[in-house]
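testing teh design pipeline on a random one, pls ignore if ur not involved
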């Protein structure tokens, strides 16, 4: 399947982990995990957390094996200095394969591409995570002003829009929350547009990145950040998956993008 992951391809895989309750399938996932991963699964106190972790690790292994001739159980991983996981198998390095994972209550998302950096974030917008105090304390000044300009009933949506964009950017850079959230900001130059502004202290430039945002379903909001390359136009393929069982192609409508033209496959 690596030949389907061309220079412009971005593949997104979405798993509703709470719906995966077949014990035979869950046990099959467990057989794919390393000893350290199985020990980590056992450390979670709550069943939902254990299942999320198990499905996440199985999803990563099964999906990566769709692209490269490595058995799911044979994948090896490490984390960078900021905790970002990456495959260390020589096949992944040679293919210049890049992936990123995000999860929220009920949903795991994985993005895969080649030759570029990739970051994504997904949030359950119906959850309790919204807090205007986070905006006040951590967001950039321009974002705080824009946040309080929208009607109160729209602020929850605006918060999650900003948050998912911010998370996708810091994850694409592979540095997590070591990047101060108030040193870069997002604004909306037109109805469906988005634009990033980056403080020079971060030693980065806005033209390097592309952004998209969409809702996999009404309760979730997802943002994707990829490194811009001159030689291609991004093409999205999005699948809902039960790892090792079934999958379904999706064609969501992107609600915001930094690009003038969106391409779907």
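output:
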């Amino acid at each position: 399947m690596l030949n389907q992951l061309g220079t412009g391809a971005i593949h997104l895989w979405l798993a509703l982990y709470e719906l995966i309750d077949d014990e035979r399938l869950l046990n099959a996932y467990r057989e794919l995990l390393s000893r350290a991963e199985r020990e980590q699964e056992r450390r979670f106190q709550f069943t939902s957390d254990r299942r999320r972790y198990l499905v996440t690790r199985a999803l990563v292994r099964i999906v990566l094996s769709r692209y490269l001739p490595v058995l799911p159980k044979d994948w090896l991983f490490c984390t960078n200095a900021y905790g970002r996981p990456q495959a260390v198998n020589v096949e992944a390095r040679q293919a210049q394969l890049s992936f990123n994972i995000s999860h929220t209550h009920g949903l795991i998302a994985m993005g895969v591409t080649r030759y570029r950096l990739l970051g994504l974030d997904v949030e359950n917008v119906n959850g309790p995570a919204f807090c205007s105090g986070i905006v006040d304390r951590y967001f950039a000044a321009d974002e705080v002003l824009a946040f309080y300009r929208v009607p109160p009933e729209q602020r929850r949506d605006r918060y999650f829009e900003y948050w998912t964009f911010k998370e996708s950017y810091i994850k694409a850079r592979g540095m997590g929350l070591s990047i101060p959230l108030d040193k870069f900001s997002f604004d909306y130059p037109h109805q469906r547009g988005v634009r990033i502004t980056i403080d020079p202290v971060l030693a980065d430039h806005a033209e390097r990145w592309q952004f998209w945002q969409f809702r996999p379903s009404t309760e979730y909001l997802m943002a994707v950040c990829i490194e811009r390359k001159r030689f291609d136009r991004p093409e999205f393929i999005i699948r809902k998956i039960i790892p090792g069982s079934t999958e379904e192609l999706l064609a969501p409508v992107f609600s915001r993008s930094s690009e003038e033209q969106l391409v779907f496959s």
